[in-house]
Amino acid sequence: MYDNTETVADDTSVQTDNVQTETPTSDELDLTIDEIIKLNESDFEEFKDDAQHKGMKPLAHWMQHVPPDVRKHIANLRADYSRKTQSLAAEKKEIERLREELTQTKAGVLDGPLAKMVKEVDTAAEYDLCM
Question: Are strands 19-22 and 13-16 parallel, antiparallel or unpaired?
Fold first, then answer.
């Protein structure tokens, strides 16, 4: 018969690109939400404003391994990001509408009937404006 039980190793290290790194223990990861909120670029290289990290496991994978408070915080961040993105999209749409309106107004002023009348005025002629 075969033994179908799994053996869990006590090794907390992770092997990536031939570089041995230590996985933090749960005690090392015990941060409060306030501590997480206060983290900034100087605390972690990954927080740089221009960060474009590639090749990561999907967020759903990591969400299974974080405490509920952290999941809620991440959900709040994602919701805030979505609201801001949608707000920017609405503002962009309004700017495009205003740009089109301005273009049409400009065309009406430069190519409209009044503009044609002004172009037809004989600027060399003398007019008696005092009648």
Answer: antiparallel
Cα 87 to Cα 65: distance, rounded to the nearest angstrom? 32
Phi-psi region of 20 (alpha: psi -120 to 50; beta: other; left: phi over 0): beta
* 131 residues of the chain, pLDDT tens digit each: 334 444 444 444 444 444 454 555 555 567 777 877 777 667 777 766 677 778 888 888 888 888 888 889 889 999 999 999 999 999 999 999 999 999 999 988 888 888 888 888 877 778 777 76
The pTM of the whole model exceeds 0.85: no
Tokens of 82: 């979505």
**Cβ–Cβ < 8 Å for 94, 101:** no
Residue count (the chain): 131
H or E element in which residue 91 lies: helix 68-111
